[in-house]
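Example record used in the benchmark description.
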Amino acid sequence: MATQPGGRRKWMMMAGLAACLAGVVTLARIPYFYLHSHIRGQQLLHQAQQAVAAGRQSSSSGSAAASAAKVPMTSVNLLKPAQPGEVLGTLSVPTLHLTAPMLQGTQDAQLNVGVGHLTTSVMPGQRGTAILAAHNATWFRHINNLRPGDQIVVTVPGSTYTFAVTDERVVHTGTPVYNSSTPTLVLEACYPLDALYLTPYRCLVFARLVSGGSASTTDSSSLAADSAGEYTAQIPTDLTQQGLTLATNSLPMGKLTYTGSPALTYTESNQPLSASSTLVALYLGWLHASAESSATDLSALDAAEDGAQMSVNPAYGVPLKSMQHESPFDVTLHVDGTTLTQATGQTTVKLGSRGAYRVTVVAHVDGDKLTLTRVSWTPA
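Model output (structure tokens):
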């Protein structure tokens, strides 16, 4: 990627300042974040589509003059500074069937619900390098599948910019991304892309502008996205009040994998993390109930309702402070199309003097509700 000559302004943006919070910070907000993230994301996507449509109408009268002036690389609305959290437009990647709202900023508030624009970079379509970041386990889960020539489309009120992928790199956090002399776009996410934890590497996809200008003709109806709700679980109130989150419990997160035939529109949404976080809450609720020797709460969590699991529960009566996880909590989701049918979690936990056990947590999914069906313990 070309850099500006030494006599011109040159600056660098450190890769990883944007999407590096994919696992630890995001999952630490169970259940609040996941109760609103997908819904809010869809609201923002709808808002962005309305803004694009409005901008298209308002710019139609001036499109001829803009064409005659031959300045397709800039647009007045792009030069207006946006406030953090402001909806800028939409990002679409046809090859991945991905459409996401694009917001100003790369803090939790933006990345939790969409794709964020790094404020220290130029806007897409302007001369220079524009950086767009998103969580690796949601919107940008499949960006490593992009190949040279694949299109990335950024739509803002009054303008559409089409970029063609040129390169993909996996770099260490802190690797500089230099500004360019031509309109360039970089997509950034934590790597590996299936990680549910903080990683020291970033996946960067580079693209160059191939067309763009005012008076967008993109049909906003093609920007529709899955509107399914977030996942929930019924957990006794006394357990939820104890805080069943990663912010209040020590549980290392592992990888997210799939079985079945998941659709890209599912894996490139916030629903996988919603399912993972709900499963985590159920598992932590089970541990808390076990530590307190609460047969009532365990029965409430047990979909079998026969009490059989309690008799083979080695964590029963073991204080939480004596439980130590020795391996990450890996999550497997069985998805057919956009329908999640089962969520499974596995980890190894040491239960004080009782030794270490390999734990498998299985939840059945009915619509948007997860219910525990099995918690098995195998001596490690």
